[in-house]
Amino acid sequence: MQIDAHQHYWNPARGDYHWMPLDNPVLARAYGPADLAPLLSAAGVDRTILVQAAASVDETEYMLGLADATPHVAGVVGWVDFEDPAQLAVLERLARHPKFKGVRPMIQDIADDGWMLRDDVQWGFEAVSRLGLTFDALGFPRHLANFHRILTRHPEMRTVIDHCMKPQIQDPGQFDHLARGMTRLAEDTGAFVKFSALVTEASPDWGVEDLRPYWRHIHRAFGPSRIMWGSDWPVVRLRCDYDVWRSAALELTADLPDADKARVFGGTAAEFYSVSG
User: Fold this and answer.
1) Helix 242-252 crosses helix 33-43 at what angle (to 10 degrees)?
2) Mind listing the pLDDT tens digit for each residue in 13-62?
3) How do residues 171-180 score in pLDDT, each as one tens digit?
4) What end-to-end distance do the CA atoms of the chain give, in Å?
5) Whether the Cβ atoms of residue 55 and residue 83 lie closer than 8 Å to each other
């Protein structure tokens, strides 16, 4: 089973995608299952994980509705307000939906880099762990130390690091900082990592060799059993089409044994998100 571990559907007319530049012709349009289905078929991808793109419970409900009507959506990663402990009841309700897998606070967009360390949001991490849900860690390299503190504080929380922690590929001088931080997370926590979104952190004229050092490092640090491929579609369209990123990922992993490729392109995501055939 081939799984795309990270994709989005959205409709800007909903009005809760506050990060989205509405003058961007790639992003500021509706994307739904009918747009992605032929791309999945051409790539041989069977199932997907649909990930939140708005800081609202309403968007999570919207995605669960899409998931109910879309066989290829195997799971939904949603959002609840960690700053409101009363939303524990919301999280408990969402957790009863068979396709609800976990949550993703939009930490990369929060001005306070120490937000995740605040006492008033710890209930969220504790609830995710207690309910057996997953946590998608969305941030930048500057968040590495704080993610290390949170994940070692909550070792039972099933966590995946989104987008290889969004390395600043256009600034190669930052590689050593990223590499050290990711190695610490790999060695000191049980976190998984998404092999996704590298192209959107690279320059517009990116090539596969620009991405190879980052792939090599996560492969060495985490190993195939903790790495899952994701498209980050439609955000990936800022740099290339779905099939181009898929082909680049296949080229980067070409020297892996077949069993390891099977983990990266499906098995790891199936295990992490509890996806059955």
Assistant:
1) 40
2) 999 999 999 999 999 999 999 999 999 999 999 999 999 999 999 999 99
3) 989 999 999 9
4) 7
5) no
Pick the closest to residue 97 from 57, 69, 68 (CA basis). Answer: 68
Q: Output b/e per residue, 42-52; b: 16+ Cβ within 10 A.
A: ebebbbbbbbb
Average pLDDT over residues 96-124: 98
H or E stretch at 102 = strand 100-103
Q: What are phi and psi of 221, to 5 degrees?
A: -80, -45
Question: What single DSSP character describes residue 115?
Answer: G
CB atoms within 10 A of CB 60: 22
Give the model's pLDDT for residue 192. 99
Phi, psi of 53 (to 5 degrees): -135, 5
CA 76, chain centre distance (Å): 11
Please give the Cα distance from 206 to 248 (Å, whole number): 11
- Delineate the domains of the chain, giving CATH numbers in brackets: 3-272 (3.20.20.140)
Phi, psi of 223 (to 5 degrees): 80, 155
- Give the pLDDT mean for 233-259: 98
Q: Which residue has the tokens 């120490």?
A: 114
